[in-house]
Amino acid sequence: MNAVASTLDISALRDQFPILATEINGHPLTYLDSAATTQKPDAVIDAISDYYRHDNANVHRAAHTLADRATSAFEGARKKVAAFVGSENEKQLVWTRGTTEAINLVAYAWGGRVLQEGDQILVSTLEHHSNIVPWQLVAARCGAEVVPIRITDAGEIDLEELRRLLKGPARMVAVGHVSNALGTVNPVREIAKLAHEAGALVLFDGAQATAHQVVDVRELGCDFYAFSGHKMYGPTGIGALWGREELLAEMPPWQGGGEMIDEVSFDGSTFQQIPYRFEAGTPDIAGAVGLGAAVDFLNGLDRDAIAAHENDILQYAIERGDDFDGLTRYGCASQVSGAFSFVLNGLPSADVGMLLDQQGIALRTGHHCTQPLMSRFEISGTVRASFALYNTREEVDRLFTGLAKVRTMLS
Amino acid sequence: MTDCDNSGGNPFGTAITTTDIRETLDFMEDWEARYRYIIDLGKSLPEMPASDRTDESVVRGCQSQVWLNSHREGDRLWFQADSDAFIVKGLLGVILAAYNGQTSASVLAFDVDDYLDQLDLLRHLSSTRSNGLRAMIDRIRAEAAR
Question: Which residues of B participate in catalysis according to the annotation?
Fold first, then answer.
């Protein structure tokens, strides 16, 4: 039973997610891997199949009724998603395949044009590979340098170190809003302020944030915000980049093809205005519609109550972890969200994951696409349970019952 | 090396054969018993000394790593393998039971997918990059093909 007084009916919410009723290896599914991807409510699944059943056509060609419907649905979703992250101007919302592609877009189109030899891009040791490697690729081409901002043993960005690094030739600070591996909620407003005072731009990787807290890009003060549909109850294959208008307007195209052009001839081609300039080829129309439906779903909930519920589940897991013999937690930041990362002392995390899977418990083990972070703690990986709105205290109890069995089997 | 160990420095392929493994696992339906057995098999695989865990021998996975060394004696191939995960180590034993001490031709002719499928362990191979097993098997076959 939930200790937090709540207007939420979690049971009724869970009923909206059909996959949660599945059995895995003879056990009810205990899905604790939402940081990897979230499960989808009927509303999102139905929106996608309804689109293909009733509205499917190619967009922006408006020659017939279905094309109008598809375009409306697609651009309507853009407007919804832009508003969801606090932007009133949907032209500042570029559709991408996800957070990774959004960051690559900025690295390539902004970085490729602006970065000079000796310039620096600051990223933290917490970062997911998707917020490290794109910068490394552009840095290699431009003679720039990717410099890591070190973190504390608690898994928090060292702001003193950031201040020190900002005295150097930093052009961009790119950090996660919430750490996927440790759950650390970074002090993003402070980071944006510090970056701007030093004349650097700031990009936030919002993949782990948008489902779990209200994001307002104007209030955060960032220049770019990247996020993924599939981590916020939407489909895979769709995400977005929000950017400040004047920055996007100066960025050259990065992928060429249909949709992003104005005129094409063998003497040269001209390109569309933002955001279309960055959207080559037929887009993931159904994906955008699905993400719009996910936004509707989230907007229909009391988001504060959801955040309180998710926080209760995470804190309960941390509490139970404190009481579990032989469990070492990683990532004890002052503010955490979503992820509970740990190792069972002396026991390989991969084995823990496999044996939990036999008990119907789905979570992730390994480096979580954050190899530099794992090196910092001198470990090869952790076991990570990550929570979303549909998780319950009962599921946390199942996790720890499962872990007790695993500990016995492996010791 | 014990008296049971072969030229690979482990009992797999000689003292512990694919028949032994098949017969044991056929009797076990309970997942706990099956995994305990596999973990135990892994304990029969000696720990590879750090000096043998080279950059050439490592097969990196997202969740665990595997090391593989091999050498020929006459027309037979012998393998040493290790992993940082206990279950994967047991699966290495299961796989080496099929390949250790075999000729190149036998190694290449062996249907390892079918073997693991019959043991109801195929899903561990399907995890591709996750645990390094598939890549390791590819290396064993590449070694045999030389």
Answer: 62
